Amino acid sequence: MHFTFTEEHEELRRTVRRFLEQRSDEQAVRRAMETERGYDDDVWSQMAGQMGLQGLIVPAEHGGAGLGWVEMMVVLEEMGRSLLCAPYLSTAVLAAGALVEAGSEEARSEILPGIASGETIATLAFVDDGRGWDVADVQMQATKDGDGWKLSGVKNFVLDGHTADVILVVARGPDGLSLFRVDAGAAGLERALLPTLDLTRKLARVSFSSTPAKRVGASGDLTSQLRRVLDLAVVGLVAEQVGGAQRCLEMSTEYARTRLQFGRPIGSFQAIKHRCADMLVSVEFAKSAAYNAGFTAAEGDGDLASAAHIAKSYCSEAYFHAAADNIQIHGGMGFTWEHPAHLYFKRAKSSSVLFGDPMQHREQLAQSLGI
Amino acid sequence: MHFTFTEEHEELRRTVRRFLEQRSDEQAVRRAMETERGYDDDVWSQMAGQMGLQGLIVPAEHGGAGLGWVEMMVVLEEMGRSLLCAPYLSTAVLAAGALVEAGSEEARSEILPGIASGETIATLAFVDDGRGWDVADVQMQATKDGDGWKLSGVKNFVLDGHTADVILVVARGPDGLSLFRVDAGAAGLERALLPTLDLTRKLARVSFSSTPAKRVGASGDLTSQLRRVLDLAVVGLVAEQVGGAQRCLEMSTEYARTRLQFGRPIGSFQAIKHRCADMLVSVEFAKSAAYNAGFTAAEGDGDLASAAHIAKSYCSEAYFHAAADNIQIHGGMGFTWEHPAHLYFKRAKSSSVLFGDPMQHREQLAQSLGI
Amino acid sequence: MSMKTMSEAELRERTRALLAEVHPDKVDRTTFRRAQFDHGLAWVRFPEGHGGLGLTANLQQIVNDEIRKNAKTFYEDMAINPIGIGMGGPVVLTHGTEEMKKRLLRPLFTGEEIWCQLFSEPGAGSDVAGLSTRAVRDGDDWIVNGQKVWTTLAHLSKWGMLVARTNPDVPKHEGMSYFLLDMQSPGVEVRPLYQITGEAEFNEIFMTDVRIPGDRILGHEGDGWKVAITTLMNERTSLGGGGGSRGSGPIATLLRLWKNREKAAFTQASEAVMRDRITQLHIECELLRLTGMRAKAGLRSGIPGPEGSVGKLAMAEINKRLWECSLDVMGSSSLLYEAGYELKRPELHGRASRVEEHAKYQFLRSRANSIEGGTSEVMRNILGERVLGLPGEPRVDKNVPWKDIPRGV
Amino acid sequence: MSMKTMSEAELRERTRALLAEVHPDKVDRTTFRRAQFDHGLAWVRFPEGHGGLGLTANLQQIVNDEIRKNAKTFYEDMAINPIGIGMGGPVVLTHGTEEMKKRLLRPLFTGEEIWCQLFSEPGAGSDVAGLSTRAVRDGDDWIVNGQKVWTTLAHLSKWGMLVARTNPDVPKHEGMSYFLLDMQSPGVEVRPLYQITGEAEFNEIFMTDVRIPGDRILGHEGDGWKVAITTLMNERTSLGGGGGSRGSGPIATLLRLWKNREKAAFTQASEAVMRDRITQLHIECELLRLTGMRAKAGLRSGIPGPEGSVGKLAMAEINKRLWECSLDVMGSSSLLYEAGYELKRPELHGRASRVEEHAKYQFLRSRANSIEGGTSEVMRNILGERVLGLPGEPRVDKNVPWKDIPRGV
Which of A284, B23, B280, C225 is 20 to 30 A (C-alpha) from C193? Predict the structure, then answer.
């Protein structure tokens, strides 16, 4: 593991940050989060057109940039930093990742180009209603129906499930776990936007009632491939968390430097200074955790699952504490609707739950390490 | 629950504190802890003769003061404060408590007067080697031998077991759990002083090999009585912990007021001031927990077991943190052998383990509350 | 008969006499509370003629018990006019003129005139005494300009307790005065201040050339800080833990959520970890309650201990952890916020929602616990300095004219 | 050939030439290290003639690797003369005269002359610059009186790096000078300072009318603080986390204790709670290690990040919790301390004890981690001020003659 970002990575970071500072500033985030769709079409098109972000990990032969998980980490860190409201984690990470890791060649050719061009919003529906985040928990059955398949049941917490053009559904077929495609407008498909704690990330409940579907998974049981897809999604999410946590640290530090009370900047009081210092330590640890997971994903020869467990457990808590401390340091102001601190706080809490909470990841880590 | 100490309680506190300030100051503690017996005979005699402390809960008819658990709590809080080295918890709390709560009338008449007069050092041996702190864990068997009984096996962590004149042993007879008396010098009795982390409290490993014993328990199975004895011992121990924690808070505060660095008392820095404030909060909570347990024990109509679980869990951690923070606040000095901070630290850690650690008490509390 | 020595029995009798004359179940609130005031049973510790009988404060309990016993209707002071009765009354009594007492106390008690407190400013949070709102003499009157914040009930209030700077050339604690501001005065604008929950419990107040008559000053010119301290002391005693029975309050909600938990969402191991965490919170909540009881016992027996100030700090910190734990108990469903974030005034009498929604609301709302009414940092300073006697920090804002102290937004 | 551009291959060759001349497996330490010094392979970054070749510091690795590869005997600098090589050498190089370099560096490197550091005083802990030890001119010499503390290796040392106050009439940072003290001088008394463990890793030094020749000053009179900072900067880089492989170090001990645990002492529930706690510590130890690696990567690529200073703080705090957890894993047997508290000097090469005893020793020893080499409070100040750019506190000891600063014990 070297942990060294190249000059290309840093250039990518600068480019994405510049774009997001212009197109995903606080006002843009607030506008997007109040809409039902949850994002700005125009920004989405620019992300694809100008920068090719949606196709970051899509192979060049399918119209993507063919880059890897270190680049994805850099991009998502910036998106987490700016609280970008967009169906990116769903489309470019979950759906694209699922197709790259577990899709049939045909499905990849069919779907990935649209993702890369920004025309297709896609998502991965995997959590069965009332069940956990592990793909092994999936019980939904896909039944053969002529040449195609039919799905019935409910998937919960589907990222951008209400707007996705293509929903990739994890369900059990005769060979075990596989991937099925359902398109917007399919018969028996119902999608309900959920009232989320975090307004900046849209979740939907998606119901299928004998809904026609197409099998798009590679052959055989895809449990281990889909596990990897979720580990990679965790890599993406922890990068977002690190970006958000770093931003909270910067907001706190900036405020502590400039807010005067008792004739002094509040950051000159040890109560505030040491809180910021402790935040710095945990943000740095979170970066170590996330980068380690990202580089492990990119190099492909390490223990990705363990790195993901460590990162999801630690980064979730680090972000939550940074966001909570950021409110405290801002005092009454940090608690108002008009200040952005609460947006980070809600994002932090929700990200901690998404894809499994810290305790669950620790339990899995302990099992794999034999603790 | 009123929580109000009467003027008599306060007078008792003042008297005991004055005595301990004279006879159990730091030098006296260090002298006593370096000896194998672990205490000063002279001090012990004065405690009994001048103040009747050993017989505090011993009924008047057996030569004691016939007082209750609130008074015991006051006394032990002071002893914990001064780190008194003496076989008091063993003799006056465990052994006297066991006889009062679970002893036969004959045994009480035989043993309690000696305890009250300070002539008898006594203890309760209940932890089977390799087992836990709950009396229900006891497996040691007492076998009938003519008119008397014989004991074989090993008891561990026996308070002052190496110096006790009378060892009350918890063992199983034909009616269930009971109490047996073994005297110093009995055949087959071996006692080894253990090398303790906390030098101020002596523990021994006591082995019995067909050792003659006398049954001194009341009739029938004494499990519930002995549970109460241990709950009462916890009341005593948490009072000690509160006294020690309060002393650590005072040492820290005093040092923070007077130690100058950068031209200012270190207590004027928020890092130190807020640490002291947090210590104050937890010491106050610990007092609430201990006093609640003590008043519940005294009034006899509340849920003593729950009160004891709450107190043992909280006071153990509060004392440990106070003792650890006291070292930190004293800086390098607090880490030296010559400064008393380490004596409190070691006492705090050991007291946390004695009679079951915080997690164990929480687990029992959760069970009894159905959490 | 000397009022000071009125027996409990006599007080009970007097209360029954009030009830015989006007019964709360039969007349409207104003009528009953006016009569209660006139009988000296509003605050028995207040002087005769001002709603009281000159007795000790604890005897009020006798009156309240007697009313509760004999009537279905009982008006909680804190529901009627919390800031007026909790702080306004005492401050008028201590620092007001005879005319003010006559004019203000009765409608304050009846709830005909609601009060609010105008101390905090955007630039003066923990440092209340650093406030910038200016009051300048204009003939007999004062002209006020400035902005206040964190004002509960301002939109319903008749009177605001306003502290403003009347002399910027002296050190900050010396240059303030305390005014009664008629909230209907021209130039007073009240705007809701929305919070993390979407609700607006508080207001921002903008004052532009607001005229206050010269006789609406409490204490003398320059006494503002002293009078404000009287007000705040009455605030502190109304915060902090204690009260309630064992296992009631927030911990009851957590335990209920735990009982209702989605069993399938927990492994045996994660259940054990969670149970230990909940048990720790149970213990801390119980000790918060017991510490509150000890504080009250201390007050009763005349030994005020540090337990009272401890309660505010501990409650804030425990509350936050408790509601965090609640969300963890709810697992994935804590991704949702069923109540939504519609920007609005809070419902006056709370919300009747499912326990899950209540917990989520509290999870967000509790973040303010360690800020409002004194941040946890300020509380630790108070405990460190006033209870433990630790020295203060070097001050850069003492003995300096207020106008020379560095000040930001 | 310019030394600056010596290739790795050439350096390797030069090292092999040294080994061909004197081989560490065949000669004694002094002989070998003298030769290594004379070949410029002691510290390749030092100038020629002073044990080095004027190369970049990272090339030292080449030399060490080459020696390790070709000999069984390898001398670790930190085992031979940690303070001398870690701090004394660099400070002599930066601030010493040519004569000093000639006289001191070689025996320092060989370990013939051990060094110690005389900065801390009982009255000047975190506030090192507040020190009171006085040095007064007497002809060409200086006469020193005072007390130093926390001095490792003083009882074995030839040289002490002493900072003493030479001018009390100027602000504290300006009135100190930096001396080389011959520890065998009359009036120097070294006493062991016993710690919580009963061991004395450190010493107290009492100096009574100790005479130091005038040419044993490093830098100029009054430069003491500047020179001390050079010394301390070399200390900081040798602390902090990182290094080791995944799961090695203290966490390995904890996991071993957990594996060896007395199974009967745990219920299924308490085992789950403990497992979660251990897993958290495992994660933190792994992140401490990875953060150390990032810091090193940062240094290599020329971007020094905050990770280095983060390591010292984090390691101290994690260590304490880790060893607390170890004792909890051991349960009741943590009541015992088999090693006992005999007051003694620590064994030079560590103790070969059971893992349980090691953990108990570390439990006690680790309490000093957040004090030694900069308290955690000081580290948080450094991170807050130097890394995050937060403002310092108001200072009462700046621009004031040292003699007028309040001072206690």
Answer: C225
Would you place residue C1 in the very low, low, confident or very high pLDDT band (cuts 50, 70, 90)?
very low
- Given a contact cutoff of 8 angstroms between Cβ atoms, the answer to whether A225 and A102 are in contact is yes
**Coil, strand or helix at D144:** strand
Single-letter residue type at A326:
N
C384 interfaces chain B, CB cutoff of 8 Å: yes
Number of folded domains in chain B? 3
CATH number of the structural domain spanning residue A127: 2.40.110.10
Decide if domain D230-387 falls under CATH 1.20.140.10.
Answer: yes
**Is the residue at A308 inside a domain?**
yes
D205 touches chain B (CB under 8 A): no
Q: Do B247 and B273 sit in the same domain of this protein?
A: yes
As a whole number, the mean pLDDT across chain D is 91
In angstroms, rounded to a whole number, what is the distance separating the alpha carbons of residues A315 and A358?
9
Active-site annotation holder among C112, C221, C235, C317: C235
**Chain B closest-CA separation from residue A170 CA (Å):** 36
Q: Which residues of A touch B328 (CB under 8 A)?
A: none
Strand D115-118 vs strand D159-165: parallel, antiparallel, or unpaired? parallel
Quote the tokens at residue A15.
């480019």
Q: How much is the pLDDT for B302?
A: 87
**DSSP bridge partners of D164:** D177
Torsion of CA B152, B156, B161, B167, to 10 degrees: -40
pLDDT by residue, tens only, chain B of 371 residues:
667 899 999 999 999 999 999 999 999 999 999 999 999 999 999 999 999 999 999 999 999 999 999 999 999 999 999 999 999 999 999 999 999 999 999 999 999 999 999 999 999 999 999 999 999 999 999 999 999 999 999 999 999 999 999 999 999 999 999 999 999 999 999 999 999 999 999 999 999 999 999 999 999 999 999 999 999 999 999 999 999 999 999 999 999 999 999 999 999 999 999 999 999 999 999 999 999 999 999 998 889 999 999 999 999 999 999 999 999 999 999 999 999 999 999 999 999 999 999 999 999 999 999 99
Which of D196, D327, D380 comes nearest B335 by C-beta? D196
Taking each helix axis as running N to C, give the angle between helix A304-330 and helix A341-353, from 0 to 180 degrees, rounded to the nearest 10.
150
Say whether both B89 and B155 belong to one domain.
Answer: no
Q: How far is B258 from chain C (nearest CA, A)?
A: 9
Contact yes or no for D297 and A4 at CB 8 A: yes
Q: What is the CATH number of domain D115-225?
A: 2.40.110.10
- List all residues 6 or more positions away from B349 whose beta carbon is below 8 Å from its beta carbon: B197, B198, B320, B323, D327, D334, D363
ipTM for the whole complex: 0.95
Give pLDDT tens digits for D100-124: 999 999 999 999 999 999 999 999 9
Active site residue C235: yes
Q: Residues 60..99 of C with a Cβ closer than 8 Å to A: which?
A: none
Nearest CB to A353 within list C149, C335, C367? C335
Residues A202 and A276 in one domain: no
* Amino acid, single-letter form, for residue A209: S
Residue A272 maps to a domain: yes
Residue B1 belongs to some domain of the structure: no
Task: List residues of D whose CB lies inside 8 A of any C CB.
Answer: 268-273, 275-276, 393-396
Boundary-marking domain end, from B194, B215, B236 = B215
Q: Given an 8 Å threshold on Cβ–Cβ distance, is D310 in contact with A280? A: yes
Backbone angles phi, psi at C296, to 5 degrees: -65, -40
Residue B99: both structure tokens together: 């006889």
User: Residues of D with catalytic annotation?
Assistant: 235
- Which superfamily is assigned to C3-110 in CATH? Acyl-CoA dehydrogenase/oxidase, N-terminal domain (1.10.540.10)
Contact: C336, A132; criterion CB under 8 Å: no
pTM of the predicted model over 0.80? yes
Count CB pairs under 8 A between chains B and C: 125
Clarify whether residues B140 and B98 are in a common domain: no
**What phi, psi does B25 have (nearest 5°)?**
-80, 180
B270 reaches A (C-beta below 8 A): yes
Ranges of chain D with pLDDT below 70:
1-5, 234-244, 299-308, 348-352, 409
* Domain, as residue range, for A187: 122-215
pLDDT, tens digit, for every residue of D58-97? 899 999 999 999 999 999 988 899 999 989 999 999 999 9
Are C202 and C151 in contact, with CB atoms under 8 Å apart?
yes
Question: Distance, in angstroms, between D202 CA and closest chain A CA?
Answer: 29
Q: B291 and B181: one domain?
A: no
Nearest C-alpha in A relative to D299:
A4
Report the residue from A3, A276, A288 with minimal CB separation from D388.
A276
Q: Give the domain ranges of chain C.
A: 3-110, 115-225, 230-387
Of A256, A257, A288, which has the smallest distance from its Cβ to D290's Cβ? A288
Whether residues B157 and B245 fall in one domain: no
